[in-house]
Amino acid sequence: MAQGQWLKKRLLIILLLTTAALILGLQTFLPAKHSPTPIAKTAPIAAMTFSPSLPPTVVPDRLFRQVQSLAFERYTPAQRQQARDYIVAELQAAGWVPSLIPFQGGVNILAQRPGQVRTSNSLLVAAHYDTVAGSPGADDNASGVATVLEIAHLFAQQSTARPLQLAFFDLEEQNLQGSFAFANDPQQRADLAGVIVLEMLGFACHTPGCQRQPQGLPITPPSDKGDFLVVVGDTEHLPLLQSFAQPPPDLPAVLALPTPMKGLLTPDLLRSDHAPFWYQEIGAVMVTDTANFRNPHYHQPSDTPDTIDRPFLSGAAQLVVNATARLLSQSTPLTTPAQ
């Protein structure tokens, strides 16, 4: 067989295997007609134990106020310092003790609190706080930062089985530098059970055809309208994806994408801060409104708070809060069970 024919055949086989893995992965957690499988019980914890069936409720006005406060260009060192000062002040006001973690060229922010099960590893919820030059970044990514800050307010006094970490990454727009620095540090990643990365949560479009999809994605979105969230996760850690399954009918629909081979054949799924954790074999999901596949203001001066769909953002934030609550209520590993 000629070398060119052999290569084409090999690529076809890889694509077929990828498609099969994606379909099989979807079947493991897409909404079913029967009741969802109950979350495994853990050892009893303190009197303030959080119940995943009653997650805290997002405060929409507070959430949007955070977006408005952060909607300025966050590109130069001085601009990013201004954003850091705001984030640190908000964390402190919510009762957290944030730390600054410098790396070459930037500074990450980390806040954490312990869980009740000492042997349990942490859940990290993260968003990047920088922007490209010339954009105020209301959706990209003040919406993600605002949601992490909302989690800080809602979970500050909650006792949960699993420890919770909150991170705000610098320089995502410059080759994911902040998340690479974090994930590549053995000390920072040593205690992680899984990661939820928030990448643009506030834009929705409701006209037919306004939603596009990446090339090579072997699945069709639920609608050609941009009124749903996408959750991208690696197939080795499906419990992270399962935490977003079966959303209530009053919240945005969720398209979950279990991604085999660490996204090798779908590079558009590697464009955010979850990717460095995949490369370190740490389970991570990215939650997104699909960015430039929906939002015409992506990386533009027009990415302003008035373009945010406030009900959609509140619903997206509530979905993240619900998933966070489910994952914090457990102390078991978040790896995919062996078949």
UniProtKB/TrEMBL annotation:
Please give a single GO biological process term from the UniProt record: proteolysis
User: Which residues belong to any copy of the Peptidase M28 domain?
Assistant: 108-212
Q: Which Pfam families match?
A: Peptidase_M28
Query: What does the record list as coiled-coil region(s)?
Result: none
Which superkingdom does the taxonomy of this entry point to?
Bacteria
UniProt-recorded Gene Ontology molecular function terms = metalloexopeptidase activity
Q: Which InterPro entries match?
A: M28_fam (IPR045175), Peptidase_M28 (IPR007484)
Name of the molecule in the record: Peptidase M28
Please tell me the species this chain comes from: Cyanothece sp. (strain PCC 7425 / ATCC 29141)
